[in-house]
Every structure is written in structure tokens, then in C-alpha cells.
Amino acid sequence: MTSESASSADVPDWVGDVSLGVDAWTRRGAETQPPPVDEVVEGPAADPESVARKILLDQLTGQARSRHELATRLAKRNVPEEIAARLLDRFEEVGLVDDQAFARLWTTSRQSSKGLARRALAQELRRKGVADDVVREALDELDPADEEAAARALVQRKLRTMSRLDDTTKARRLVGMLARKGYPSGLALAVVRDEVAGMPESDA
């Protein structure tokens, strides 16, 4: 073999082609061919029931949830329906899933933090899959005086930002706000009338 043929044999096949040269230097395209799975490192496939149990515990960490919410989460993670139902039943038996307790906690928390009235609270609970009888039971435990106090707190807070508006505009906007929060029109009108009339003249 001549020196010329030997030297040409040693030349990489990408010489003369910029694209091939970049591929060779950066190993571009390697990501399209993932390395084979090492079965020893990967280990056996996770048990579906163990996976589902971990999902439930993660979902319940720091926050109560309805059974429907948890079932929906399991379905999204492709947990077989029979496994999901069995685990949810078990979680209910030990008290980790309790729609009645969840509904009571939700109504008191949302009333105090967001000022929501019964109608809005009922809508939220139904969206979370809580049964109507459980919703009614939770709402029946709310004190009507607390609902009125929450409405007044909302109106008083909003009034602080409405000093430049006339009373008619204030009343219209405040009643609309309370309606969106689920308050009945009679209560909303009474609260707004009282609070607007009680504003100091300098703020009117």
C-alpha cells in the first residue's frame, strides 16, 4: 500500500462535509437513540397498588380532598379502576378520606378566607364531587350570623377603595360583588344599604 492510499484510509469519512464534521464533534443525533435499558439498574416495574397508595398520600399531604378529586387524580395516572376503588374504600375506613369532614372544613375555610356565601360554597363542593346530602349537611352547620358578618367585612373592605364614587354607583357595584359571592339579594341589599349609609361624610 502506498503512503498516499494509507493516509487516505486514515482520514475520517466526515472530512470535507461541514455538517458531518459537526455531527462527529458534538455527537448530534445521539439523543434520538437512547441507550438500552439496564434491567438490573431499573429494577422490576412498580406495583400498581403501591403507586396508587403513594399518589393518594401525596395528594392528602397538607390538604384534605374529596373522594371524587382523589379518584380523578388516580384515573389521570392510569391506575386501574378496581385498585383505585379498593384503596379509596380503605382510606375511608381509616378516616383519611372523609367527604363530610372535607365539606365542613371547606365551607368554614372558604367563608372566612374568601367571604363566600352558601350558594357559592355549594357550587364549589358539587364541582368537587361531594354528594348533595353531604353539601346540605355542611351548609346547615354554618351560622347565618357568620354569613352576614362575612358580607359586611367584604363591603367594608371594598368601600375603602370607592371614596370617589357616588352612593348609587357604590351600591350597585357592592350588590353585584355580593351576588357573585353567592349572597341572596335581600341580604346583599340590606348590608350594602347599612354600610353605605354609615360611611362618614368625608368618605362619601
Q: Can you give a write-up of this model?
A:
The chain is mostly helical. The protein folds into 3 domains: 47-97, Orthogonal Bundle (Arc Repressor Mutant, subunit A); 99-142; 144-203. It has 12 helices and no strands. Helix 8 (118-127) runs antiparallel to helix 9 (132-140), helix 10 (144-159) packs across helix 12 and helix 11 packs antiparallel against helix 12 (185-197). The longest helix is centred in the middle third of the chain and has 16 residues, at 99-114. The termini are far apart. Residues 25-45 are annotated as: Disordered. Residues 146-191 form the RecX third three-helical domain. Residues 52-90 form the RecX first three-helical domain. This is Regulatory protein RecX. Residues 98-139 form the RecX second three-helical domain.
Distance between the terminal alpha carbons, to the nearest Å? Answer: 104 Å
| SSE ordering | HHHHHHHHHHHH
Oligomerization state: single chain
Mean pLDDT: 84
Instruction: Report the structural category.
Output: mainly alpha
Stretches where pLDDT is under 50 for at least 5 consecutive residues are 38-44
Helix share bin:
55-70%
Major beta-sheet overview: none
